[in-house]
Amino acid sequence: KGAIVTFFRKQLGKFGEDLAVSFLKQKGFKILGQNLRFRFGEIDILAEEKEDIVLVEVKMKSSDEFGEPVEEIDYFKKRKLKQLAQAISQKYPDRNIRIDVVGVKAGKKPAIEHIEGAVEF
């Protein structure tokens, strides 16, 4: 049972990230990378919007039963995102770094919520 649930969650997460990438591209973002691993975490999507380099955290929910996807980002996740932003800022020293959150709710018609600058950096 555990392996099936883990597999389903991974598939759901991938589906959410694919929707987020399409959504961001439609908004004019250039996707620089996905699932970028660092020693202290992973960036779901790294993108460029105008002059900004944007770290995008994707939160997927299969239903809204337990609140909004964005509410899933706790203190520890925010701290990790800030560490990742710090690492990215060293790679792009002359660029503004921003942390956005894209929340995706699954359903017959998935709902997408994009919060720019959701985590202060």
UniProtKB/TrEMBL annotation:
Coiled coil: none annotated. CDD domains: PoNe_Nuclease. GO terms for molecular function: nucleic acid binding. Signal peptide: none annotated. HAMAP family: UPF0102 (MF_00048). Belongs to the UPF0102 family. It comes from candidate division CPR3 bacterium. This is YraN family protein.
